[in-house]
Specification:
The chain is α+β, with helices and mostly antiparallel strands. It is about 25% helix and about 10% strand. The N terminus is likely disordered.
């Protein structure tokens, strides 16, 4: 059991034996959730990750695509830069036009326009937790 100073025993985490080759995620539900038993999610799939039990390190396989649903890592990285840089539609279209046209002789970026980038972003948003918000009014 991993004991963290200041936490009651029921909040500390039980870790598997380090020599165990089985990998899993253990979810301990919140006491008010109505779920009493921990949930174990095995991570036994060898399709996406290779696990080296001697070094305890993870090595992504070449065929894994963590940038999905973007067509390429370069599409993801360009989009990330454009979003963080608050680039507007005209600038994105001008840059992508240049990259696909006369600026570069060969580029792995497959995005053609702002609309193309927006389609990838819409698909990427489906990977996250969907949140709905409501405005509550107080009548005092």
């Amino acid at each position: 059991m991993l004991t963290i100073a200041g936490l009651p025993n029921e909040e500390n985490v039980e870790l598997p034996d380090p020599t165990t080759t089985s990998m899993f995620i253990k979810i301990i539900p919140h006491p008010d959730s109505g779920v009493s038993e921990p949930i174990i999610i095995p991570l036994e799939s060898r399709d996406a990750v290779d696990y080296d039990s001697k070094s305890h390190s993870f090595t992504p396989l070449l065929h894994s695509k963590p940038w999905a649903p973007f067509r390429s890592r370069e599409d993801f990285e360009y989009t990330e830069t454009a979003v963080k840089g608050l680039l507007n539609k005209d600038i994105v279209n001008a840059q992508l036009s240049g990259l696909q046209g006369h600026w570069a002789t060969s580029t792995p970026i497959t995005l053609q326009s702002y609309g193309d980038m927006e389609k990838s972003l819409v698909a990427a948003r489906q990977y996250g937790v969907q949140v709905r918000s409501h405005l509550l009014h107080s009548f005092n």
